[in-house]
Amino acid sequence: MFKKAVLFSLLFLAGAGSGLYAGWKPSASRERVREWHSFDNPEGHEFFKTYDLIARLWSLNMGSAGRLQDPKYGSEARREYLNSLLDIAQKGRPQVTDPAVLTLIDVETGITYVRLAMVEEAAGNLPASQTWMQKAQTTLKQAGWKDCSEAHLKELVKTLNQRDSCSRLCS
Amino acid sequence: MKALKLYGIAVSSGLLLGALVGWHFGRTITSGRLAWEEMLAADAYGQLSYLQYLRADSEHARQALLGFTDFSKSISKLPSAKGDKALPVDTGRTYLRLAVLAELAGNASLSHEYVLKAQETFRTTGADIPEEKLNQQVTKLAEAARSVVPPS
Asked: In principle, which of A57, A62, B64, B113 could form an S-S bond with B49, CB 3.0–4.6 Å?
């Protein structure tokens, strides 16, 4: 009797597990189709690429700001995370054609360069810090920034680190 | 035979219950995730364009702000954007910033056009802000911008 009850339960659980998967998959994909069905045209595809890239960059931006604020993360972890943001930006850039979006990607990239410069400076790697800072200045100048002085960029990034580590989405 | 029937009932009832729960949570969690992605993308574009407004020259600032208003128009068509109350507010504020840039460039009629667009956008949130009040806001912001960057 006990064996039968155990077997019954196991079969019920196996059925429930398969059912869960079988129910989850179509309902999740149905939601996604419903979300994007009005964008099923070339313009919509372009918008989706921008949307996806911007959302991913911002998510990494908030993660970077959080890691730079949190003392439990060392230089290596911070460096790695910031480089992953640069990697996503670099890979995503060719998929976007809108010049306004490309400039915003440059802004995000420039800010990440400043963050890397600050990480290297804190780790005592001054030549690497200077290299990142120069890259930041060149990139942000191209994005039309009026003040690209080192002091200004560092001050701004400190403010952004505080703001972005818990942006309006967290509140 | 009886035992086999019982096991069949166990599997099929589990399958049915699992499918119902899976369907419900698949829908709820995915729509929550889509809403999060929508807010993330809108917040990202809004914040970066605002940064451009504050730090870049007027041409780049204008390009970024106009980019955001276009992006906002597209994003608001997404079902997940229906509950995003911040999006029209950010868009309205962006129109006001565009009005400030037009004002600073000496283009009063364009500035007025943007103020009207801002008013219309705020109205979609239920806030009917008088044009006069928005004009005052634009003048105040333009004066603040002028005091930071004196005319050359």
From this structure: B64
Task: Give whole-number Cα distances, B112 to A101, B63, B97, B134, B137, in Å.
Answer: 26, 18, 12, 10, 12
Q: Which of B6, B31, B38, B47 to mutate to test the interface with A (most CBs of A within 10 A)?
A: B47
| B40–A108 CB contact, under 8 Å | no
Whether residues A85 and A154 fall in one domain: yes
Q: What is the dihedral of CA B76, A107, A79, A83, to 10 degrees?
A: 70
pTM comes to 0.86
User: pLDDT by residue (tens digit) across B35-90?
Assistant: 999 999 999 999 999 999 999 999 999 999 999 999 999 999 999 888 888 999 99
A100 interfaces chain B, CB cutoff of 8 Å:
yes
Q: What does the block give as tokens for A22?
A: 């079988």
Per DSSP, the three-state class of B121 is helix
Contacts of B78 in chain A (CB under 8 A): 35-36
Say if the Cβ atoms of B10 and A12 lie within 8 Å.
Answer: yes
Q: What is the ipTM of this complex?
A: 0.86
* Boundaries of domain holding A143: 43-164
- Say whether both A116 and A53 belong to one domain: yes
Inter-chain touch B15–A57, beta carbons under 8 Å:
no
Residue A40 sits at the chain B interface (C-beta within 8 Å): no
- Number of structural domains in chain A: 2
Residue A169 domain-assigned (yes or no): no
